[in-house]
Design goal:
Belongs to the ParB family. Residues 21-120 form the ParB-like N-terminal domain. It comes from Candidatus Giovannonibacteria bacterium RIFCSPHIGHO2_02_42_15. The protein is an alpha/beta fold. Among the domains are: 15-107, Conserved hypothetical protein from pyrococcus furiosus pfu- 392566-001, ParB domain, CATH 3.90.1530; 235-306 and 313-354, no CATH class. It contains 13 helices and 8 strands. The protein has helices at residues 41-54, 84-93, 108-122, 127-140, 145-152, 156-164, 170-177, 183-190, 196-208, 213-229, 236-249, 271-281, 340-344, and strands spanning 15-17, 20-24, 28-29, 60-68, 74-82, 97-103, 253-258, 261-266. The strands form 2 sheets. Strands 1-2-6-4-5-3 form a 6-stranded mixed sheet. A two-stranded antiparallel sheet has the order 7-8. A hairpin with a 2-residue loop joins β1 and β2. α1 crosses α2 (84-93) and α8 packs parallel to α10 (213-229).
Length: 354
Amino acid sequence: MQDDNLPNQDKRAPRRSSSIFFIEVDKIRPNPYQPRKEFDDIKLSELAESIRQYGVLQPLVVVRKEISTPSGGVTTEYELIAGERRLRASRLAGLREVPVVIREDFSEKVKLELAIVENVQREDLNPLDRALAFKKLFDEFKLAHKDIAKRIGKSREYVSNSIRLLGLPQDMLDALREGKITEGHTRPLLMLVDREAEQRALFKDILNRNLSVREAEKMSREVAQDRARKKDFVDPEIKTIENKFREALGTRVLIEKKGNGGRISIDYFSEEDLRALLGRFSLVENATVENNSAKSVESARLLNEPAVSSEVKEPPQNIATLASASFAPPISDEPMADSAESHASKKEVEDFTI
């Protein structure tokens, strides 16, 4: 206990209570290996209010640092190992001193390990910051994924999957940090890491259509199935047609050719999307759509279909005519020739599927 009546006592020295010291907050430097790059201001304010009422309940962990001064002397500072949120909140609360436990100086690896363990145990560390910290342990300190997992009390798969998300493009990582997508959304995006165009399309849909993780995973699996279907041979004409449909409709379109016929699958994510698609094809205005939890165009049937007319009509501009009975000839920029026979076989859309 410090006694103010002792003239020779250095009042700037840390105050001690049992094995806990009280150190001025201005003498504590942040941990250079702190994995957390961003701190939630609202949560910090809540913690500061708690500290005002109850004090700092858990001591910070620091190491002592002797710093040489320009005059040739030595001054003592402390480097934070664990407890940066408590330190920041204590400053917000107006505390001059905080309780600390002083440890012997650690190696750089141990400093990083301790900071990671503290933050991972809180479960609110940004997934990107966590992945970068794991990668630092792996790259700079040569710790295997299983060794990192053992130190933080997680599985090896947890560590490996965290590091794996760093393979996403920077704008997707930025979206993850900013909370525009979740860590769950990174899984289906990573499934398309070797399909840049499809990955971009899925990322755009996640942002613009507010896709759930389950919906994003479903789309990613469909792309994987499409990849398996086209593994042996990719028909460039079919791919071109799919791209034209995608640009025209604003959603993913899959064409599966079977003999002289085939099937066209169009993705949609709500009844509003379905009605917009119907409007593009000028099929039905204000059609009643049978709702279905699968939200599949294949399972959604149009009710009140208009009577089939024998009148031959021009096909919609810039949209390939859909037919399940026969496959259209190669698309060209030239207008399609009018033919009563050809239009008679293509005047009805039998089904759509996802």
